[in-house]
Amino acid sequence: MPDDVETIKNEALKELESIGEVKRLDEWRVAYLGRSGRLTAVLRTLGALPLEERRALGQRANEAKTALEEALAQREGVIREQEMAQSVAAGRIDVTLPGRSAPLGRLHPSTQMVREICDAFVTMGFQVVEGPEVEWDYYNFEALNIPKDHPARDMWDTLWITPPSESERPMLLRTHTSPMQVRVMEKTRPPVRVVVPGKCYRYEATDATHESQFYQIEGLAVDENITFADLKGTLYQFAQRIFGQGRKVRFRCDYFPFVEPGVDMSIDCFFCEGSGCRICKDSGWIEIMGAGMVHPNVLRKVGYDPEVYTGFAFGMGPERIAMLKYGIDDIRLFYANDLRFLRQF
Ligand code: YSA
User: Fold this and answer.
1) Which residue's CA is minimally distant from atom 13 of ligand 1?
2) Would the CB of 211 count as within 6 Å of ligand 1?
3) Is it the case that residue 2 has pLDDT exceeding 60?
4) What is the DSSP letter of 2?
5) Which top CATH class is 109-131+183-342?
6) How many CA atoms lie within 13 A of 286 on its CB side?
7) How far apart are CA 33 and CA 39, in angstroms?
8) What is residue 225's predicted lDDT score, i.e. its pLDDT?
9) 256 lines ligand 1 (CB under 6 A)
């Protein structure tokens, strides 16, 4: 014969009061309210009782069940609060401590320099475009007035994907961003004003100023009546923006097969103000890019009439410019993934 409902209820409540841990509450629940629990056993007997008795006992048993369930929930709340208070007192959780802030990422110094340089040209009306790093020999060399077997190819140590000896249509990792001059002109009619940032690859013996992967930024402007004076004026403005007002620039003859005339541009050394130091190798000048007037052969290749259109182009290495600007003495730091270096920018 199961116990009396009131007795079970009173005993259960008394026992519940003595429980001090959340994990013991479940044992209590099973003992009284579980499938084989004491109160459940009472409910099981109901079927065998006469109707009147069944009603009365059923009602009392259900009320007891509800009371026990409510008492259980309340006890659990109390115990959890006590446990939290104990653990706070024990110093395991200091709820007054500020949360840990997630570390903030930042842009890679090469990316920052690329963006700064592109922005300088965007304010002068240039558009930013990008192109493929895996390139055809045609765009990297042929269309830039560098035919097969031309000695000028030696200027770019090439990483081939399919070399000319193995393919009618050789493929390579672009050695400079200049192929984009051709791609842009093929698709557009003048006026053209673009800058092209992107990764380039060379089969280099790496050292403090040479990496086998590095960024370049190409520039191209083509229109009627563009002259060498436009080239000088644009690049002078660029130097003022990136290196500061009052910078002097110098142009000297240089050779690139896709320009005529070709030049290199230097700025006066801002470490020694032109008097000569280790950085500028005592010359007072620091070379920052190659440039020139687009060669008529290149214009012809893309269907532009060189009698009508002229243009200038330039190409520079943003990492080398960042090295000058921030006094970084080894280009390999850019790609060494050393956070001590990267966090400085
Ligand atoms: C010249 C005339 C134009 O009308 C247009 C573009 C050019 C630039 C030409 N395409 C070129 O690649 N010239 S370059 O071989 O002298 O490279 C240009 C710049 O890229 C260098 O001044 C340097 O800053 C960077 N560079 C070249 N090789 C590098 C490198 N940076 C890091 N590591 C290397 N291995």
Assistant:
1) 290
2) yes
3) no
4) P
5) alpha beta
6) 27
7) 6
8) 96
9) yes
Instruction: Tell me if residue 176 is catalytic.
Output: yes
Query: In this structure, which residue's CA is closest to atom 18 in ligand 1?
Result: 316
Global pTM value: 0.74
Task: With residue 265 as reference, give the H or E element that holds it.
Answer: strand 259-268
Residue 26: which residues within 8 A CB-CB, separation 6 or more? none
Q: pLDDT tens for residues 101-142?
A: 888 889 999 999 999 999 999 999 999 999 999 999 999 999
Q: Please answer whether residues 293 and 310 qualify as being in contact, where contact means their C-beta atoms are separated by less than 8 angstroms.
A: yes
Percent of the chain with pLDDT over 70: 99
Distance of alpha carbon 334 from alpha carbon 209, whole angstroms: 11
Does 109 contact ligand 1 (Cβ within 6 A)? no
Any atom of ligand 1 within 6 Å of the Cβ of 24: no
- What is the CA(342)–ligand 1 centre distance, in A? 24
User: How far apart are alpha carbons 289 and 316 in whole angstroms?
Assistant: 4
**Helices (H), ranges, the chain:** 5-18, 22-33, 38-45, 51-89, 109-122, 137-140, 179-187, 228-243, 296-301, 318-326, 339-342
Residue 343 C-alpha to ligand 1 middle, in angstroms? 27
Q: Note the pLDDT of residue 91.
A: 74
Task: For residues 138 and 140, give the distance between their C-alpha atoms in angstroms, rounded to a whole number.
Answer: 6
Q: How far apart are CA 195 and CA 118, in angstroms?
A: 7
Which of 216, 222, 260, 314 is the best mutation target for the ligand 1 pocket, counting ligand atoms within 8 Å of the beta carbon and taking the most?
Answer: 216
